[in-house]
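In the lab's daily routine, each protein ends up as an entry in a very long ledger. A line of letters takes care of the sequence, but it says nothing directly about the fold. The three-dimensional part falls to structure tokens, numbers that each stand for a local backbone shape. The outcome of that step, for a single protein, is printed below.
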Amino acid sequence: MCYRDPSNVGTIAPELAELDELQFLELNGNFLVGHIPPVLGNLLNLVSLDLSHNFLSGAIPLGFDNFIRGKLKFLRLEVNSLTGPISWNLGFVPLYVFNVSYNHLEGFVSPSFSKYSIRSPC
């Protein structure tokens, strides 16, 4: 599901978590505000989650630890106003892309991220 409408200010509907076969959720570049619903971590068939370039606040939900059991490969949360620690367990999700830059996150990135090779499109 891809939705981009920079003129639409709103929140992420927790009901999206009911779409349990959803593989791609691309909501980047909207004016989304508020917290990321923790129930999105229940989308275990999700391959790509892109919530970048919005105005999301709060912490990365602990529910995202569920992605350890899922298929997630791309997690993009950059350019928001997220705060708090980066969950240690996210380091055990075998991601190809993990971008949380330009937020207000704190703590250390799990050393388990170092076992993955860094890939660049350039």
Remarks:
- The chain has a mean pLDDT of 87.
- Residues 9-115 form a domain with the Leucine-rich repeat, LRR (right-handed beta-alpha superhelix) fold (CATH 3.80.10.10).
